[in-house]
């Protein structure tokens, strides 16, 4: 969306990575190659299939060369994104399904590859989880590279034409970001993408302001235009007038000052004014994010999502492969604790290696712990890999989407079997490893007192708990106003979970999006949660707020919230209390 003021143009998009960049745009060609499907004669089918095979092999070789070069020049950090694309190309389905289209439809290789990509897009579009839904970007990146190989369009690394460059493109792939000269390129803008794409994760890791979702911004008419990029609000301003330029220079200075101040306090303990300690941890998807969590003051990982390891592959990963990845994550956050969530997939997050039928209501279907219990041998591979990692440092296991005691007991029984198998093989592990549960279903809230007797910790997944409690699809834009974290029913559920956990003597944690939003901190702190796990960039500001208030005062605020009848009333009250009690304090 764009608005115009004289020659100045303002665009609004998706905030991918915070920060303010002031420089000039450089439009780079990252558009999809222009290819058309056309008919081929029967005698040319074998040649088209061979052309496809050759293009895939050549593209794989090019990516392997990029991986080698990056490893030599910058070390192994972030290479998992390149390896993910190599993994997709090693999956024979991309070739075999496209080859089958060449044979059945008698069309050229490029057209067949496009049809295969369209099929994948339709599948991923039906996935509810935003992070996994955006993994289609990995498949798209691979297909685009193959098509460029087939059409002879070389895609060279992006080099800045001048200092203080803000790169603009239709889309940017991990390889683009990894090969950028970060001393000259100070920001990124794309037409496609979102907060959970790999490019966004890398932008945050490299502290590059980034905005996505701005239609038609990669227009050559904007090339070299002076620009201001605000990655915190998702705003791009072209040809800023003097007043706007001066205002954003001050905002940039203020932002950088605040960030430096926050990061300086990152190493400070997360203690309230009355000495109560609350652990702040990070939510991560890949090992490369571990160092980012620690540098922002995190005390380990409260949620390690393992789904990425299972995506875009025909066969489930073996135990040793999982062990290597989990070990890399543990090393990244050592000596701090690591909480590994077992596979939360299936239904709306259907994995290719798991033969399941399409479900009408995947959000309530065969997913998460239900799916794991339905394939015990594969589940135990993951459990054994986690157990093997546990001997090297503090590790916890977290079972997702537990709805009752039966599921928890079956999961723990398989965990005991995995322990016995490792013990028999003489492989060491932490015999006292903690196994907790995600509380994200209303039934788990209702049964919290019973579950607390047999779980080692609770971690509330607020995203799903809100969705299931309020019967609101959080991906449905029409229902967005009804997705209310401060709904009185949600707050009563949170209170019930904390009380049940503490009566049983186990920790109560939060790993959903509520944990990282300062607006909710007084309630979560006041209710008595022991640990909050969030996006790494949120940790410093939440820690600052923790250090500015007493637990006693936060409890008074939280209790007062239960006297209000609507989310709007609670929000207004919270904002008032934050302004009074959380703006100043010990630093």
Can I get a quick summary?
With 587 residues, this protein is of the alpha/beta class.
| Rg for CA atoms | 25 Å
Unreliable spans are: none
Described by the principal axes of the CA atoms, the overall outline is globular
Helix content: 40-55%
Q: Output the strand order for the largest sheet.
A: 1-2-9-8-4-5-6-7-3
Query: How many helices?
Result: 22
Distance between the termini: 40 Å
The SS-based structural class is alpha/beta
The major pleated sheet works out as:
9 strands, mixed
Report mean pLDDT, rounded to a whole number.
86
Catalytic activity: L-histidyl-[protein] + phosphoenolpyruvate = N(pros)-phospho-L-histidyl-[protein] + pyruvate
EC number: 2.7.3.9
GO molecular function, one term: phosphoenolpyruvate-protein phosphotransferase activity
Cofactor: Mg(2+)
Task: Write a structural description.
Its main location: cytoplasm. It is an enzyme of class 2 (transferase). Helix 14 (405-424) links the parallel strand 13 and strand 14. The chain is an alpha/beta fold. Helix content is 45%, strand content 14%. It has a 9-stranded mixed beta sheet with strand order 1-2-9-8-4-5-6-7-3. The chain has helices at 45-74, 80-90, 92-105, 109-125, 130-133, 136-151, 174-178, 198-205, 242-264, 290-295, 319-333, 368-374, 376-390, 405-424, 442-446, 448-451, 462-470, 488-504, 521-527, 539-546, 551-561, 567-581, and strands at residues 2-5, 8-12, 14-17, 20-27, 165-169, 185-190, 210-212, 226-230, 235-238, 279-284, 301-305, 338-341, 395-399, 434-439, 458-460, 508-510, 531-534. 44% of the residues are buried. The longest helix is centred in the N-terminal third of the chain and has 30 residues, at 45-74. It contains 22 helices and 17 strands.
């Amino acid at each position: 969306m764009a608005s115009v003021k004289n020659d100045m143009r303002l665009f609004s998009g998706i905030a991918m990575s915070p920060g303010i960049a002031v420089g000039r745009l450089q439009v780079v060609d990252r558009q999809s190659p222009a290819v058309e499907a056309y008919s081929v004669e029967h005698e040319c089918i074998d040649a088209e299939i061979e052309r496809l095979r050759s293009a895939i092999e050549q593209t794989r070789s090019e990516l392997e060369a990029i991986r080698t070069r990056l490893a030599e020049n910058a070390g192994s950090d972030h290479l998992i994104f390149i390896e993910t694309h190599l993994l997709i190309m090693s999956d024979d389905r991309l070739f075999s399904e496209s080859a089958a289209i060449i044979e059945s439809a008698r069309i050229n290789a490029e057209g067949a590859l496009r049809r295969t990509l369209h099929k994948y897009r339709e599948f991923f579009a039906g996935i509810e989880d935003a992070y996994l839904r955006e993994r289609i970007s990995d498949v798209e990146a691979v297909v685009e590279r193959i098509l460029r190989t087939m059409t002879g369009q070389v895609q060279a690394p992006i080099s800045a034409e001048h200092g203080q460059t803000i790169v603009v493109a239709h889309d940017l792939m991990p390889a683009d970001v990894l090969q950028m000269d970060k001393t000259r390129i100070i920001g990124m803008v794309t037409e496609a993408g979102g907060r959970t794409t790999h490019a966004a994760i890398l932008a945050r890791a490299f502290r590059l302001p980034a905005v996505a979702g701005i239609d038609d911004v990669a227009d050559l008419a904007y090339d070299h235009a002076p620009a201001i990029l605000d990655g915190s609000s998702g705003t791009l301003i072209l040809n800023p007038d003097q007043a706007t330029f001066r205002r954003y220079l001050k905002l940039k200075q203020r932002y950088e000052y605040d960030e430096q101040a926050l990061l300086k306090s990152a190493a400070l303990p997360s203690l309230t004014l009355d000495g109560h300690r609350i652990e702040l941890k990070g939510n991560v998807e890949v090992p490369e994010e571990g160092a980012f969590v620690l540098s922002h003051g995190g005390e380990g990982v409260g949620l390690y999502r393992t789904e990425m390891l299972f995506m875009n592959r025909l066969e489930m990963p073996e135990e040793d492969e999982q062990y290597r990845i989990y070990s890399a994550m543990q090393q990244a956050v050592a000596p701090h604790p690591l909480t590994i969530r077992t596979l939360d997939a299936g239904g709306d997050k259907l994995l290719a290696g798991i033969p399941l039928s399409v479900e009408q209501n995947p959000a309530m279907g065969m997913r998460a712990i239900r799916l794991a219990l339905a394939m015990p041998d594969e589940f135990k591979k993951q459990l054994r890999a986690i157990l093997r990692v546990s001997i090297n440092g503090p590790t916890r296991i977290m079972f997702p989407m537990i709805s009752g005691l039966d599921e928890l007991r079956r999961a723990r029984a398989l965990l005991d079997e995995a322990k016995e198998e490792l013990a028999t093989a003489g492989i060491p592990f932490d015999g006292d490893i903690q196994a907790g549960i995600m509380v994200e279903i209303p039934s788990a809230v209702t049964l919290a007192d019973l579950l607390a007797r047999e779980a080692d910790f609770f971690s509330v997944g607020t995203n799903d708990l809100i969705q299931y409690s309020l019967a609101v699809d959080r991906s449905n834009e029409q229902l967005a106003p009804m997705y209310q974290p401060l709904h009185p029913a949600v707050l009563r559920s949170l209170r019930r979970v904390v009380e049940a956990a503490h009566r049983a003597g186990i920790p109560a944690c939060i790993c959903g999006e509520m944990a990282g939003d300062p607006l909710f901190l007084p309630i979560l702190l006041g209710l008595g949660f022991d640990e909050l796990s969030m996006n790494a960039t949120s940790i410093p500001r939440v820690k600052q707020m923790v250090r500015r208030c007493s637990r006693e005062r936060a409890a008074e605020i939280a209790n007062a919230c239960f006297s209000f009848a609507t989310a709007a009333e609670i929000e207004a009250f919270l904002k008032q209390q934050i302004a009074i009690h959380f703006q100043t304090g010990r630093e």
